[in-house]
Write a structure and sequence with these properties.
By secondary structure, the chain is α/β, with parallel strands linked by helices. It folds into 2 domains: 1-64, no CATH class; 66-164, no CATH class. It has helices spanning 6-11, 43-62, 74-87, 104-122, 131-148, and strands at residues 16-19, 31-35, 38-41, 67-70, 91-92, 160-162. The longest helix is centred in the N-terminal third of the chain and has 20 residues, at 43-62.
């Protein structure tokens, strides 16, 4: 992975913050200055924090643990899906599943159920059901596949969450 430079951060527009009326006092240490009603973010502090985050991610992955990518905003969905697929990591791009970290046993049961339903659909095990039940099962499977699509291979609680 290439080292990210201050010039790359500047070209990407990472120095633009919120309007100066919409800020939190805890963010004061990260704000370099204010210009035209917009806060300008301190890129040196951003780079230092980014380097610490990259080091942490490398340590987690080197330890054999999983990181889950989460990007549910419209602008981030495609990027998160593509980047997670490139590295083979689990991801959420549509919506966060409640209890994914705190109630993982139940979420794992849902994932197993979705996998079982997929296998049953592929092996035509649904032929025993009436047509309206098959269509209902298919709609349910399509819906939960969208929600759980990127985390179907997860077997244990991820060690970290990566947010854009």
């Amino acid at each position: 992975m290439d080292d990210i430079t201050l010039q790359q951060l500047l070209e990407a527009g990472c120095h633009f913050g919120h309007k100066s009326e919409r800020w939190h006092p805890h963010a004061k240490s990260f704000i370099y200055t204010e210009k035209d009603g917009i806060h300008i973010i301190d890129l040196a502090a951003t780079k230092a924090g980014l380097d610490r985050a990259i080091g942490y991610v490398k340590d987690v992955v080197a330890g054999g643990k999983e990181i889950i990518f989460v990007g549910t905003k419209r602008q981030a969905q495609a990027i998160i899906k593509q980047e997670a697929a490139d590295v083979g990591a689990p991801y959420f791009s549509k919506r966060w599943i409640g209890g994914f970290l705190t109630n993982f046993e139940e979420v794992k049961k849902n994932i197993d159920k979705v996998n079982r339903l997929k296998i049953e659909k592929e092996t035509n095990a649904w032929k025993k059901f009436p047509k309206h039940e098959r269509s209902s099962l298919a709609r349910y499977l399509d819906k939960v596949t969208i929600d759980y699509g990127g985390v179907m291979m997860v077997t244990e609680v991820p060690a970290a969450i990566l947010l854009p």
